[in-house]
Design a protein that fits this description.
The structure holds two protein chains of two kinds. Chain A contains seven helices and no strands. Chain A has helices spanning 2-5, 8-27, 44-55, 62-76, 82-100, 106-131, 138-171. Chain B folds into three domains: 26-66; 67-121; 128-282, Thrombin, subunit H. Helix content of chain B is 39%, strand content 27%. Chain B has a six-stranded antiparallel β-barrel. In chain B, strands 6-7-8-11-10-9 form a six-stranded antiparallel barrel. The N and C termini of chain B lie far apart (76 Å). The chains are: A mainly alpha, B alpha+beta.
């Protein structure tokens, strides 16, 4: 077991897991944004980017986030660049939070996530509706923002566990 | 106070400009790059179109490959479900087949008669069909669309109708070299000129972003009438893109004014991309 823990393959694989999950979720047809359930949807990619760029930015580079946004736009079918722009705004907020905080605080992160999600979803709605004249459902966006905010603690626990494993493997 | 403002400026500047060891570009550069991409995607220059087509080709194919395991699981679940209901479905289908045989005989006669009359008026309609496989049907709350494996290479053009068996499911809104994207009837941006039978009322069937559509541009009096009978929506052919009479969906007593589409958009595997030509057209 201990030899397995020290396996270089496992170490490399673990360190790339956030990136793999990010690209898998934008490429794949399965989307938490649309679960065929009434009044329930959340944006998994926003949670993923928020956590990793805040807690361990080395594991999720800005360039890959930019490309993930482009892929998401092409797969979903909205004009290219919108998701990239929104993801990078999310990264800006997390970079700002990292700069002004000495010790990470879960509650502060959680509340900042709410404001950030509301901001980026508003930007997305404005660009789609007013610039590209694509009709969007405002209720869906509001529900999506609400559930994304509520689901953060659950994904925080999962990602935090993963982050600890990655750090443990890297320092071992 | 001034120190607080300085701290804020330093933190913001650092967030935008600071690069980590492994990062080649700062956040500000990438944000400008994404704005540049958004602006460029608004223009229709040939060079931009070619780049867009290439990106679409690569990403659609990659997305199709990465979704294979998930689609296989979905197919398996669907097959198990249909096996479980086999007996019940079979009983219902036998009754349906018997009724259909009778309707088919009558329909054949009416079709031939209709064709003769259209030929007399020089209004005959011919159609060209291209069979396509659904590559991606990523559900999204923002845009209801599917990606098909036929593009300009197979003579697919913008505006062509997408049909599942005999039912309309959408129209082509984006064409690449080997694939294309069809906007489904359920999308908020979908508007199809239609005729409501048996009352022969002209209307527009609009998508709602959900699994049903709604009727627009009809008088309130007509909508009151819908409550008591079954209404079938067909394409009216007034837009000039589709032929008249393609079934879209129905409104019945249970649906409360909503149009239930005949085709199940979540189960689309193969569709027909169809273009129509009227007798008088060159």
């Amino acid at each position: 077991m201990s030899s397995l823990n020290k396996s270089p393959f496992l170490r490399i694989f673990l360190s790339y897991i956030p990136l793999i999950i990010l690209f898998f979720s934008v490429f794949n047809e399965f989307d938490f944004n649309y679960l065929k359930l009434d009044y329930f949807a959340f944006n998994f990619v926003h949670l993923l980017i928020f956590f990793w760029t805040l807690r361990n930015p080395d594991k999720l580079g800005y360039m890959s986030i930019f490309f993930a946004g482009i892929i998401n736009d092409v797969v979903v079918g909205i004009p290219m660049g919108i998701s990239s722009f929104c993801y990078l705004i999310l990264c800006t907020v997390t970079a700002y939070i990292r700069n002004i905080t000495l010790t990470p605080n879960f509650m502060k992160d959680w509340i900042s996530l709410l404001f950030t999600i509301l901001l980026i979803n508003s930007i997305q709605v404005i660009i789609l509706d007013l610039v590209f004249l694509i009709k969007v459902d405002y209720t869906n966006y509001l529900i999506n923002s609400g559930f994304t905010f509520l689901f953060y603690p659950i994904f925080f626990l999962i990602f935090n566990f993963l982050n600890e494993r990655i750090s443990y493997q890297a320092n071992d | 106070m001034a120190t607080g403002r300085d701290d804020f400026v330093i933190a913001i500047r650092s967030a935008f400009l600071k690069k980590k060891d492994k990062q080649k570009f700062s956040l500000l550069t990438l944000i400008f790059l994404s704005i540049f991409v958004i602006v460029l995607s608004n223009f229709n220059f040939k060079a931009i179109q070619i780049i867009k087509l290439a990106i679409n080709e690569i990403i659609y194919r990659s997305s199709y490959i990465s979704s294979i395991p998930e689609n296989k699981i979905r197919e398996l679940i669907f097959e198990i479900d249909s096996h479980m209901d086999l007996y019940e479905i079979n009983k219902k289908e036998l009754i349906k087949i018997e009724n259909n045989e009778q309707i088919k005989l009558l329909n054949n006669f009416l079709t031939i008669e209709n064709k003769k009359l259209r030929d007399l008026l020089d209004e005959s309609i011919s159609s060209e069909e291209i069979f396509a496989r659904v590559l991606i049907d990523k559900d999204s709350p923002y845009l209801k669309s599917i990606v098909l494996n036929k593009g300009t290479k197979d003579k697919v053009k913008l505006g062509m109708a997408v049909i599942d068996e005999v039912y309309l499911v959408g129209q082509i809104i984006e064409v690449n070299y080997t694939n294309s994207r069809a906007l489904l009837l359920s999308d908020l941006n979908s508007k199809i000129p239609s005729v409501l039978e048996p009352d022969d009322i002209q209307a527009v069937v609009s998508g709602t972003g959900n699994d049903f559509g709604i009727i627009e541009h009809t008088q309130q009096d007509f909508e009151e009438d819908f409550k008591n009978k079954e209404i079938i929506a067909y394409t009216s052919g007034l837009g000039g893109l589709f032929k008249p009479g393609i079934p879209i969906g129905k409104i019945d007593n249970i649906s409360e004014g909503k149009i239930n589409f005949f085709s199940d958009f979540t189960q689309l595997n193969y569709v027909k991309i169809v273009s129509f030509k009227y007798g008088g057209d060159k």
